[in-house]
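Quick question, first post here. What does this chain look like in 3D?
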Amino acid sequence: MPTAIAVTSADLVLPAPDRHTPGAAVLHPPEQLDLEGALAETSALLERHGHLVAVVPPWLPRSTVQRLHTVRAILETDRIALLGVDLPPLGTALLVRQLRQLSVCDFSPGVVASAARLLSHYIYAGALLGSVAKLDRVPVGLKAHARSWSPSAQFAVLAHPTPHLAKLGAAGAPGGAAVLPAGPEFATHLTFARGQLTSDWVAAELASAWQVQGVMENPLPADSPGWWGTPKLVEFAAGIPDLSVLYQLVASVRREECRWCGLELIGDRCGFCAAPLSAPPPPAAPASTARSRP
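> Answer (accepted):
Ran it through. Tokens below.
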């Protein structure tokens, strides 16, 4: 069985791009499932799949994160990877789908887990916002804050890989000298999700400017309004859709053996035990005190 990919909410599970891509397991939060049930839920996944890779975004409630670590500690297993992923909600869902695609390949669980850091660099995530007054994920100038009070204001915001903000005109055209940075220089599909903002700019304008090969609309994740600071938004994320390209990207990176748990990894850190590839240097010896002459 392929390595299990898990999330903490069902709205982070995008539709599979083909019939070979498995779904993702949804780990229930403490308010929906007690500790005994969570242990049984996770044990069943490990028994069926061997290894579990759970995506842990930073906006999760502290109780949910603590539950994940508690379950791993009680089970006393090194077969659970808890991956911290710092992407917007829709970008996180896109990364989860890519991990699901890779899970059916001939990669070991350690490579699948550590591939998340590599793949996140190739995801372009942002949103069209009706206000940036409460946006704290991207630097916002005083002028943009002031313009947020206009009822017709719209802002194109790119949060990843390079934060950028541009005010759009009433017709959806970039206003002033600021423009949205160039999109990815590789083939992508664009996924978008509508909040309480009525606009076709993402599907009609951005998709064309970025020359994406496909566009898909998806329901807005429940945590998106909180992440972007407003419910008036259209969130978007562009990423590599082709499994063969994802496979070549991961396969081209040299594989190493984790010096702590022994699993394979790519990059500089193990996805399961979080140990760095190289041991940290020993602390520098204190400088010897020069002896004073008599």
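The helical segments are 35-49, 62-75, 89-102, 109-120, 142-147, 201-209, 224-228, 243-251.
DSSP finds eight helices and twelve strands in the chain.
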